[in-house]
Amino acid sequence: MLSWTCPAPLRDQQRVVMGHGGGGALSAELIEQVFAPAYGGPGLSATTDAAALELGGARLAFSTDSFVVRPLFFPGGSIGDLAVNGTVNDLAMSGARAAYLSCGFILEEGVGIETVARVADALGAAARTAGVRVVTGDTKVVEAGHGDGVYINTSGIGLIPDGVDLRPERVVPGDVVIVSGDIGVHGVAIMSVREGLEFGTAVESDCAALGDLVGAMLAVTPDLHVLRDPTRGGLAAALNEIAAASGTGVVVQERAVPVPAPVAGACAVLGLDPMYVANEGKLVAFVPREHADAVLAAMRAHPLGAGAAVIGEAVEAHPGMVVARTALGGTRVVDMPLGEQLPRIC
């Protein structure tokens, strides 16, 4: 546990800390203060999982992601599965069905060829399951001691259907917040194998490609307002990003959030909040109230949305802030995380 990230690192950092890669406030500051000013150009300030671009009359979604998960293999998946599903899901959150992926491997000198082959096989199988083709790639090797076996970068492109416009700025008070199933499963699965912890019940990662589930939702109505896959920083980070970008408040009914017993037990033992634990096969949707029942039914009819639940709504009060109503009738603020409770989960 000595490698865990401090939950409240100092904000005035002159050097990179693990929290800068956690998808929380430190990550946002790094993007806003370093990367966005350096790159310039429109669109970089968008808080979406993929860029929506016009090219030759078509609307494309384009996304890239890097994967440094430790360990390489874990219950329910591997870095190969994550490399495909993570990028496919980023594209799906813009409404696009992924078509093509690039894949870059960074290998540490001395890693076993058998290990690399297992990762590559898992990546290929995940791509076939997701219906996406890996069409280009690259391989680099770094000296022993300068990596951690295998790192992967994937980029993906897909087409956004006509009439689909998914972005947080479209959220309005009254929108219903739906989550596609149990939260916190991936983070606890990684924690259990990395730290050698046992929670009484085996926990497997929820790693999965969400393109088909999103397609089923859009078949009900293309007028979904925003989708987000709550990976680093968990559900709390995703809701805070949407609230900040839309200028609305979000109220979550704490007892409505689906937290499986093993995750709840692990978090209770370790003093963690399931709302901040990472997911890799779940999404959160802000849906106009008039379509919420039909969208929820479509999600529950899909294997990856069978546990979908309404957990809250967007409100006019406390704009930019997420509040949870507790089982005791009180309220608590669900802050944006600074770093991450468990680094390197994807």
From TrEMBL:
All copies of domain PurM-like N-terminal, residue ranges: 49-160
Pfam families named in the record: AIRS, AIRS_C
Entry superkingdom: Bacteria
InterPro entries xrefs: HypE, PurM-like_C_dom, PurM-like_C_sf, PurM-like_N, PurM-like_N_sf
CDD domains, per the entry: HypE
SUPFAM superfamilies membership: PurM C-terminal domain-like (SSF56042), PurM N-terminal domain-like (SSF55326)
PurM-like C-terminal domain mapped to chain residues: 173-318
Family the entry assigns: Belongs to the HypE family.
Name of the protein in its database record: Hydrogenase expression/formation protein HypE
